[in-house]
Write a structure and sequence with these properties.
The complex is a heterodimer of chains A (265) and B (85). Chain A has 265 residues and is an all-alpha fold. Chain A is built from ten helices and two strands, in the order ααααααααββαα. The longest helix of chain B is centred in the N-terminal third of the chain and has 25 residues. In chain B, 21% of the residues are buried. Classes of the chains: A mainly alpha (265), B mainly alpha (85).
Chain lengths: 265, 85
């Protein structure tokens, strides 16, 4: 590294730290208070509170409770946006044939063996993150992005065609993606549908029973915390995110010459 | 005392992330730039972990170290590896 480059680097670092110092002194506007704010206090208090059953959520994890229960509708639309982005990617690549035929040149035996081992390890970790999302840090999106890492590895080490030959065709991945989103939608309105069928009052995105709305997802089973709708939301989001990312990676890994012929038509 | 250590660690990690970001911008070889960018993201993940946001860490590591470099590598494969003048 030359002296001039070092000078630029040191100036950037000095600039960033002076900016941070000015910000910490309140030079760029009023700072939020350091102590826990009232809204955060409410969330922390109500995430798991057997004394206030009508107001609390159904898991230990505050973040999951906020994401899928207190602010469930926001996350639903977020997932819908993600789904729209995937549809846009598919629309661009429409008509492109994705086949698993032909030889693939993979990487070295060391890389292949390690990837083979990881095909068991990484999905296991992802599943534990998804299914424990209402108890420990984690959730559907986190688990989905962890599970996608194995897809990246398989495409990089074995090649895209190997992935398709194992049964991960475009149609099948799209099916999983849609099943995930349908599952999220169904979980959101499940209590409402049940309430309508039984003639009871119910809400969209209802998780636990509320005043005058007695239906709710099971919170406990045999002393085990089920997490109510949080578990279902995490599971379906896991499926949807994994399939969505897999599809985008599959489309991006297509060779340019294969795509160009179709797109330029 | 422990707060001082935490803050000092955060400062070290953030300086390292700035260095990695600078190298990623300076680098003409796209593949190396992607690796530097992944190093920067790993530093950010450490910062998130120290600031007690494990949920963010769990999503940040696979996305920024796994998926983003993969997508960028695919894109690099379709364009040019070396940034010319």
């Amino acid at each position: 590294m030359r002296a001039s480059e070092l000078f630029v680097l040191v100036s950037i670092i000095v600039f960033i730290f002076s900016l941070a110092y000015i910000t910490s002194l309140g030079g760029l506007g009023q700072l939020p208070p350091v102590n826990v704010r009232l809204l955060a206090q409410r969330y922390l208090e109500l995430t798991w509170n057997p004394l206030k059953p009508f107001m609390s959520s159904s898991g230990y994890e505050s973040v999951t409770a906020i994401v899928w229960d207190f602010r469930g509708l926001d996350t639903f639309f977020e997932t819908a946006v993600f789904y729209g982005a995937i549809i846009a990617a598919i629309a661009i690549y429409r008509g492109v044939k994705i086949s698993g035929k032909g030889r693939t040149t993979g990487m070295s035996p060391i890389a292949r063996t390690i990837t083979r081992l990881s095909t068991i390890l990484i999905p296991t970790v992802a599943a534990s993150i998804a299914l424990h999302g209402h108890l420990t840090p984690g959730g559907g999106f986190q688990a989905g992005s962890v599970a996608t890492v194995i897809v990246v590895l398989i495409i990089m080490v074995f090649g895209r065609k190997a992935l398709i030959r194992k049964g991960m065709t475009k149609a099948r991945i799209l099916l999983f993606r849609s099943l995930g989103l349908l599952g999220i939608g169904f979980t959101a309105v499940a209590i409402l549908l049940a309430g309508t069928a039984l003639g009871l009052n119910a809400y969209v995105f209802q998780n636990q029973p509320k005043p005058f709305a007695p239906l709710g997802f099971p919170k406990l089973y045999d002393g085990m915390i089920l997490g109510g709708s949080l578990l279902l939301f995490n599971l379906f989001e896991f499926i949807a995110v994994t399939a969505g990312f897999t599809l985008v990676l599959l489309l991006l890994s297509l060779g340019e010459e294969e795509v160009r012929g179709v797109v330029e038509k | 005392m422990i707060e001082v250590f935490t803050l000092a660690f955060l400062m070290l990690v953030s300086v390292a992330s700035v260095v990695a970001a600078y190298l990623a911008i300076r680098e003409r070889d796209m593949v190396k730039a992607i690796v530097y960018s992944a190093i920067q993201s790993a530093m950010y993940a450490l910062i998130f972990y120290v600031l007690m946001a494990p949920d963010i860490v769990l999503v940040y590591i696979p996305v920024s170290v796994g998926i983003t470099p993969a997508v960028l590598l695919f894109v690099t494969k379709k364009t040019e590896r070396y940034d010319g003048d």
